[in-house]
Amino acid sequence: MSMKKYVYKLLCIVLIFPFFLIPGTFQADAIETTVFFDDFDGNKLDTTKWLTAFKQWGGDNANGGVLPQNVSVQDGKLIIEAYGDQYDGDIKGINRDYSLRADGKRVGGAIATINDYASGKYEVRMKVAPKLGVASAIWTFHYEEYNSDDPLYKNKPVGGEDYYAVNHEIDMEFPGRPGPAHQDFSYNKGLFNTWVGENEDEYTTEYASLGQAVNDGQFHTYRFDWHTGDSGEQKRVDFYIDDVLLHTTTEHIPTIGSRLWIGAWFPNNWAGTPDFHTETLEVDWVKITPFEQVGDDWSPETYPNDGWSYLDPTIPEDGFFDDFSTPSLDPGNWMIAKKNWGGQLSKTTSFNGGVVPQNVKLRNNNLVLEAHGNYYNGPVMGMNKNGSLRTDGKRVGAAIATTNYYASGKYEVRMKIAPDPGVASALWTFHYEELYPADPGFICKEVGCEGDDGYYAINHEIDIEFPGRPGPAHEDFSFSKALLNTWVGENEDEYTTNYTSLAAPQNDGQFHTYRFDWHTGDADETARVEFYIDDELVNTTYTHIPTRASRFWIGAWFPRSWAGKANFNTSQLEVDWVKITPFHEAGDESVMESIFPGSYDFAEYAEYPKALSTDPNVPTPTPTVAPTSTPTTTPTATPSVEPTTTPSPTPTATPSPTESPQLNLIRNGNFVNALHWTDISTAPAQAQIIAGQMKLQPASTYSAEAEQRVTVVPANTYTIQANMNSSDGQTFGYLRVYDGATVYEVGNASSNVQQKQLIFTPSSNEVRVVLHAYKGQTGSFYFDNIELVKD
């Protein structure tokens, strides 16, 4: 199922700031090599394994897309609903631009693995949606676009002079048909496809007879073995049902690691007419067994963050609760901000270093958001508003935001604020839209508008921020005061700021419960926001009350002029728990935020923190008030009549190594010879040891990399440092440590030699140390004196 993308005008930003926008810069070896298994145990989708799609493809007006609301887990099965032409329910479909359709007809659902996989055995035990008109499918998918100035560009009909699409894909889709003509659809047939591009000479479709009708109401095991090529293995894809080989394809075989998708969606004209109300695709289990063949390749997608559930503004029916007791921060609950706001010192340099994922930590069953002040000289670097890296980590904070959007409700956070002036401890809702002169509702106001040009910003926001001050003048900052704000826009007549005095200073080192009750308006409720501290009402605001469903944010960040001077090294905001109880009032509005092509202001999954072991010398804080999480009804399990599920693979235990502290674990870290480092670059890029240094020479389309694998002890803390510099003061290089899916990184572009440092706690017995210079740069990058020691 080919998905042609929009050519975004801001693609040039990717070429200028690739380290900010392209997730591949965080995981150079991004193909997952461990066995994947999920039997959908529990009552919700495991969001550490899966993404849920929110997008539309298949032709303009062909269908209403695939929505997160149609994906659920029930009784140990993944359930994907599909709404046909008779559907008359409340769910509305979307168009390709995410605008709502008038109805929910021809709306399906789909999920995809978070990680990429390449050659391997892909198995899905599922029961297909039984009616014609909807396609039940499993497929891999990887997409890139190349402009005409790129060496990999080809002038072909799809895209033409605008772009060339590299589309690597493998499909199993049902129903099928006997040949290319769109007729005689049948569940006795399937479509088995392989793609390396979107033009007619770049894909193969097999119209396969199955020997049985698979819409028989039974579970079957659908499988393909993907061979990218190896010694003794021809490039090919073997397609199976219930372990019976049905077809082998040897043409147009993909090689690039991809996500595995599972979905029920509505083709325009090749699956029949969906003359039904609702049908379901059920999945019992999924297993991927990597082959790790030589032909496996990896390359970052052009739009890796396009079309996932985090864009969906639909307000969940249920409440939200997180006490941060999980092994890692859950991307199904939270997004980690990676952006900058708060003022500019110059056109390219921001006042602060933004908020970065390295400062988000899980410790002692609490969320910790670190803030680095003016005295900080550690390894974490900041970023400017344009995405460029800064040369230091001063005034760099951290922030997270809920993945879902919420509207009217009770918002509670039990937290210990950062105690130092200069950094703002804040919790807030935020929803942002930009309207242009041709858009309905456009108003030419002071912010953003010049005459009838520019834009109008609709900014719906509620804030609780510390420290506060007695009035508008930026002076007399105090933790005995707070800023309690409501916004519906950015102009002076569109927001209210309450300079609120509190009963006691809040930077007392204790946990307090900060809360606001947001009323958008209902039959017996006046629109207002009530602000509470430890359940004591401290302010009620009736003006500029937001109505747009918003993400809920928590952060420690650095204002330019209203929080004081950040004369400290490191401070931290600590969060015990978060709870949202929706009111679902009549004033709630669910509206798409403005989406700016090429800008993804959140961390990739590989940058999410894992919980650090509890320090026995540090007592775990106990909240004064223990909240009751929103109850969840668990369906009663029913006996399964299907064959026994293939058990989840159990890895063989590896003995933990031992080592002496303070011993440099890097071999040949001063590059006195050519040993121990492996050049993993793709020619013409190269990594070579010259004159006692590692020299990385990237090429226009390939990065330069060298690696060394190092044995470590899990759960111990390590420090790695290196001298780094570039030949021209512009070429960026990175020191990275890969610990499974987790990546630690520090970068530099200075022509002066700078010592950079990373501190990390591995979860596995081996890490990869990678020296990296990103593609498309004309200079060289140098490393020397690399040391890795256990603290």
Automatic annotation (TrEMBL):
CDD domains, alphabetized: Glyco_hydrolase_16 (cd00413)
Keyword Ligase: no
Keywords: Glycosidase, Hydrolase, Signal
Domain GH16: 15-294, 296-586
Gene3D superfamilies linked: 2.60.120.200, Galactose-binding domain-like
Disordered: region residues: 612-662
Molecular function via GO: hydrolase activity
Transmembrane segments: none
Keyword Transmembrane in annotation: no
The protein, known as: Glycoside hydrolase family 16 protein
Native source species: Paenibacillus yanchengensis
